[in-house]
Design brief:
The chain has 159 residues and is an alpha+beta fold. The chain has three helices and four strands. It is globular, with a radius of gyration of 15 Å. The two termini are 23 Å apart.
């Protein structure tokens, strides 16, 4: 079998950032998948499932209610390795194109107060596995250390 594209990225040199993971064409529409890498793979601890789950609820809610992007959102969810999230949008985008959107989303998540959307038994299959405090902490870390003043090396996958 051929190695899939995401397994060809050198995870030993990959820094936290906002990367175009892939572009696919469905009919005449381009679908862009973004790698929102929050921790440095194999160097930093991965996020725990509770904060990942909380960020998933907050991020998906934010994106699907966004005035400009809500009709372009295909998916927002965690990577299995727990080092970040995939954001899939209908449209042909670059990493630079979505930095304002990602920055706005992480500002929303780091400052969120109140009940986590969908964190109820009726709405979620594992509603007790949430940690808003840690979700806010890791969102703020990504916002402060990666998104604020983001550089080119954090927008394009390393060779």
């Amino acid at each position: 079998m051929e190695k899939i594209a995401s397994f060809t990225v050198n995870h030993l040199t990959l820094l936290p950032g906002v990367y175009v993971s892939r572009k696919d064409t469905v009919g005449s529409e381009v679908i862009t998948t973004f790698d929102l890498r929050m921790t440095r793979p194999n160097f930093e601890p991965v996020m725990n499932t509770a904060e990942v789950h909380t960020l998933e609820h907050l991020g998906a809610t934010f994106l699907r209610n966004h005035a400009e992007y809500k009709d372009k959102v295909i998916y927002f969810g965690p990577m299995g390795c727990r080092t970040g999230f995939y954001m899939v949008l209908a449209g042909d985008y670059t990493s630079k194109d979505v930095v304002p959107l990602v920055t706005e989303m992480y500002a929303f998540m780091k400052d969120f107060e109140g009940e986590v959307p969908g964190a109820a038994a009726r709405d979620c299959g594992n509603y007790l596995d949430m940690n808003l405090g840690m979700a806010k902490y890791v969102a703020k870390k990504y916002y402060d250390e990666v998104l604020t003043g983001i550089t080119e090396e954090r927008l394009v996958y390393p060779e």
